Amino acid sequence: MSRLVVATLAVILVSSLVALFVVALQSRSPAPGDHPSFQEFQAMFPGDNTTVQSPVEPNNHHYFDSVAGMQEVIQMFRGHMENSYTWHEEIQMLKYRVDNVSSQIQTLGSHLGDARADIQMVKGALKAANTLSSQTQTLNSSMERANSEIERLKGSLQDANALNTQAQVFLQGSLDNTSAELQVLRGHLERAIDDSSMLKRELETATAQIQIASGHLEQTDAQIQELKAELENASTLNFQIQVLNGQLKNASREIRTLKEGMRGAAALSSQTQMLESNLKKANAEMQRLKEDLENTKNLTAKIHEEQSRLGNLSATTASQEQLQSTQNHLLQLILQGWKAYEENLYYFSYVKKSWHEAERSCVSKGAHLTSVTSQEEQAFLVQFTSNSYHWIGLTDMGTEGTWRWADGTQFNNAQSKAFWDKNQPDNWRHQNGQTEDCVHLRSLWNDMNCNSPYHWVCKKPMGQQVAG
Question: What is the spatial distance between Cα 328 and Cα 335, in angstroms, rounded to a whole number?
Fold first, then answer.
């Protein structure tokens, strides 16, 4: 658009120069009567222009000089006249050109109007461009701030990536340890499942046997009732047997007496045979009653034995159910992140809290912040806390220097000296005036302000049946 404006101004300037040139030419083309040479000629020859009169001069030399000058003037006039005709043609041509230039000027004027409109539009666009320029400057400053913020975020991202790498290494180690523990627990679980299946089969067998035994027991109860009735009858029979024994003895004595006294008596012989027959019957009845009594005793012993076996089987079933429940609970805790060592379970947190909040979190899980009672337990804890500090349950709040465990375990000062870091505990006083009354560990122990956030370790007995 700026080139169009410059071209328009150049055309206007050229048109103005051409017009001035034409005016100048018109002013330089006078009529023949107005030309100085022609006026000089009229002065020399007053009168008719077509009649040449010879001046009367007594001096011929002056006359010839005048004639020569007149001829020279005539020649000059003729030259001027010829030039005037040529100029007239040029003027006509220039007028034609001026007309063309005027039409071009009008056309250029209309173009100039369009150009002015374009200039106004360009001015508006320029204002918008200025506005955009200020906005661009604002955006550039915002971009610079954004770039600085991006650089800062890049630094934070690098730090986060480093922490993420450390966390991945730590989690990979924990995952490897957990995988190994899970393999061991899977083996235990498979064996437990096999044992459970075997126990279920034995339980089903025992249940069937119990049902059979119950049927036998019912039959035995019926037999016992019958035997009791028979025993009551047997008691009566015993009395009768005793009576018969007495009678038999008396009869025997009488038989002997009769045999001795009346050996040859037929009546006595008949009575003797009858008594002997009665005696055999009585002996047979006594033998049957003795066998029934022996069977009753054996059956009673079997009943007691079956009842004892049934009690043992019930106890075994309850024990197996308790073992299965304990194993299921242990597996749930391990899946929730608990780790097993010796007879205890340990939970290593993934977030940070103060010592008091960490203890409350452990209590909500049925545990306490961990105590440390042996070198082996200390080594186990160091395996999972070597990358960052973790709260443990040791504190001397209330009485400085009197250390105690949160779970109530007795603190062994002599044994624990090897667990402290160099120059610890020092009860350092912080700028806010708070001292260090709680203990955290990484590789060794260090006392720290209880309100500082750290990871923590919970501990509870493995057989404790509480919510994980």
Answer: 11
CA gap 426, 393 in Å, rounded:
18
Asked whether 439 and 405 are in contact (CB, 8 A), the reply is no
- Residues 330 and 340: their CA atoms lie apart, in Å, by 9
Residue that wins the pLDDT comparison between 67 and 402? 402
The count of C-alpha atoms lying within 13 angstroms of the C-alpha of 112, restricted to the half-sphere facing its C-beta, is 12
Measured CA to CA, the distance from residue 435 to residue 345 in angstroms comes to 31
Cα gap 271→258, rounded to integer Å: 10
**Residue 32: cis peptide before it, omega within 30 degrees of 0:** no
Q: What is the pLDDT of residues 280-331, one digit of tens each?
A: 777 777 777 777 777 777 777 777 777 777 777 767 766 666 666 667 777 7
Apex 61 CA angle, 60 and 67, nearest 5: 85
Query: Mean pLDDT highest for which of 4-13, 40-49, 99-108, 390-399?
Result: 390-399
Alpha-carbon span 324 to 198, nearest angstrom = 13
Say yes or no: 120 and 241 in one domain. no
Lowest mean pLDDT: which of 102-106, 108-112, 180-184, 340-344? 180-184
Q: Which of 5-14, 206-215, 268-277, 437-446 has the highest mean pLDDT?
A: 437-446
> Structural domain tally of the chain?
3
**332: Cβ–Cβ under 8 A, 6 or more apart, which residues?**
468
Are 127 and 189 found together in one domain?
no
For residues 165-175, b (16+ Cβ closer than 10 Å) or e, as one string?
eeeeeeeeebe
Q: Is the pLDDT of residue 334 over 60?
A: yes
> What is the C-alpha separation between 29 and 161, in angstroms, rounded?
97
Pairing of strands 338-341, 344-348: antiparallel
Q: For the chain, percent helix, then strand, then coil, each to nearest 5?
A: 70, 10, 20
Global confidence as pTM: 0.36
| Residues 195 and 308 both lie in one domain | yes
Structure tokens at 386: 């070597």
Question: Where among 330, 346, 372 does a domain terminate?
Answer: 330
Q: Same domain for 214 and 270?
A: yes
Range of the domain at 111: 2-49+57-145
Tell me, yes or no, whether 136 lies in a domain: yes
Higher pLDDT, 335 or 444: 444
Task: Give the Cα separation of 451 and 140 in Å (integer).
Answer: 45
Count of alpha carbons within 13 angstroms of residue 227, beta-carbon side:
19
Residue linked to tokens 């173009």 = 111
Q: Are 11 and 140 part of one and the same domain?
A: yes
β-bridge pairing 438-441 and 390-395: antiparallel
Residue range 93-102: mean pLDDT, rounded: 76
Q: What integer is the mean pLDDT of 247-256? A: 69
